[in-house]
Description:
Elements: H1 20-28, H2 30-33, E1 34-35, H3 44-48, E2 54-58, H4 64-72, E3 77-81, H5 85-97, E4 103-106, H6 110-116, E5 123-129, H7 147-156, E6 157-167, H8 170-180, E7 186-194, H9 206-213, E8 218-225
Helix pairs in contact: 1-5
Amino acid sequence: MILNKRTIRSFVRRTGRLTPSQSKALKEFWPKIGIEHEIRLLDLDANFGRTAPIVLEIGFGNGDSMVKMADEKPEKNYLGIEVYEPGIGHCLIMARNLALKNLRIIAHDAIEVLEHQIPLKSINRVNLYFPDPWPKKRHHKRRIIQTRFLKMIADRLKDNGTLNIATDWESYAEHIEETFSYADYFICTERREHSGDQPFERPRTKFEQRGLKRGHKIWDWCFKKANH
């Protein structure tokens, strides 16, 4: 089923310049681990060539943290969604250099990927690290964390699956906690407010380092799917 076309997006499609090595990686390595956006559900076991727990990362940036986790946890399958082409190219280079076999990437809007491609109850864990905070009040409607988005995630998580979130913007942290207060399909099992020294089950990210340099605090949460 195709849902109504979205008019408000949670991202701006940046068009940074690709380096020659990124262009080469996109040309040569994308066919090996890239998944094209289509309006049909994926067979994730077939995409990875095996059955294993699946970790979905939404908006992986340049892929540093996702690749590190995929390298350290070869027993899990990692699926990343990102629209920033240089970041995808950078991620492909790292994945190629490490010869990762448990990583796949989709270069498309995450909401549409969730709607069209991710089967219900197919994901074990979702990571959403340092999403665009859209700090200006008039832009808050662009924030990806909204009740509809959370319901989409909950529907695609397996029973007892988890959603892990991090931000360095206090106003977004307040927005996140308020939004989850209306989402009875999630239970908060971990909340950390720290200075970059207590990340929850994740490496430090580029955007986290940028936030710390600005003097920001870090908020980490783990939400478990509530099985009603």
